[in-house]
Amino acid sequence: MIDWIKNNKIGLSVLGLITLTTFLLVLSLSQQNQLTTRPDDVPLRKGPSRTSKQIIAMKAGTKLTVLKRQNGWWYVKDSKDDQEGWVASWVANNTFLKKPTALSEATIVLDPGHGGSDTGAMSYNNKYYEKTYTLKTALATRKDLEKTGARVLMTRSTDVIVPLLYIPRTAEKYQADAQISFHFDASGTHNSASGISQYYYNSNSLSLVQSLSKSLNNLPLQNRGYDSIPYLVIKDVTRPAVLLELGFIDSDKDLNYIKSTSYQEKIAKDITNGLYNYIQSN
């Protein structure tokens, strides 16, 4: 027997390696279908939506088996009492939330206007581009929203151009609760206009634009109000969508705010508050 083992050492080593690899693969696959809730009171729902009826609120540490997945929502089974339902995976897996907020199960798409070769509007001296500050402001908003536990998706997070027809696809694919497009206005004449505006098109976006407009009243620039205009990015989408013009980049007064990190963070906070109120009401 000892001689046989010596003569077949290489073959046994290969067999052992294959057996170990197979075991680790099976273990990995089984663990992919296991989930342990992290925050307290994670909602278990009847359907894959924050508006679906809640079955129970699960305690932190509840062990679940994942049976299927759908756009970030997971259909799970409680390993202890066999209760089944849907959870928002980004909420159940959240490592810093103690309890979900009203926004936690929401999916928000942020669309920083322009990008890449499309600079958007420019300052009077052509030194400052709209695309730069739409991205900075959207990223600040993402950071603020993620503190609530919300799932935040970006149409772009770097200086690239996204074709207008592609922008609504993210909101449609993930059935977003809101799509927000960031822009900065230009009047075409130096220092001839100032202020912020909000736009929507479809009727299902009216309450969203109203909530955001009210919250943005806190900004230091005059709120010129909201209106309905068929901009492509808010027209060709079935999900609630708004477009925000957050100052005139060819106004020296507005540009000083637009370039300011504190202004961008103020916008982020006001949008988060507006979305919080909107989600609670819808």
Automatic annotation (TrEMBL):
A GO cellular component annotation in the UniProt record: outer membrane-bounded periplasmic space
GO molecular-function terms, A-Z: N-acetylmuramoyl-L-alanine amidase activity
RNA-binding keyword on record: no
Location of the SH3b domain: 32-95
Keywords assigned by UniProt, alphabetized: Cell wall biogenesis/degradation, Hydrolase
Lineage, highest ranks first: Bacteria, Bacillati, Bacillota, Bacilli, Lactobacillales
Domain of life: Bacteria
UniProt protein name: N-acetylmuramoyl-L-alanine amidase
Biological-process GO terms, alphabetical: cell wall organization; peptidoglycan catabolic process
A Pfam short name: SH3_3
Matching PANTHER family: N-ACETYLMURAMOYL-L-ALANINE AMIDASE, N-ACETYLMURAMOYL-L-ALANINE AMIDASE AMIC
CDD domains: MurNAc-LAA
InterPro entries: MurNAc-LAA_cat (IPR002508), N-acetylmuramoyl_amidase_3 (IPR050695), SH3-like_bac-type (IPR003646), SH3-like_dom_sf (IPR036028)
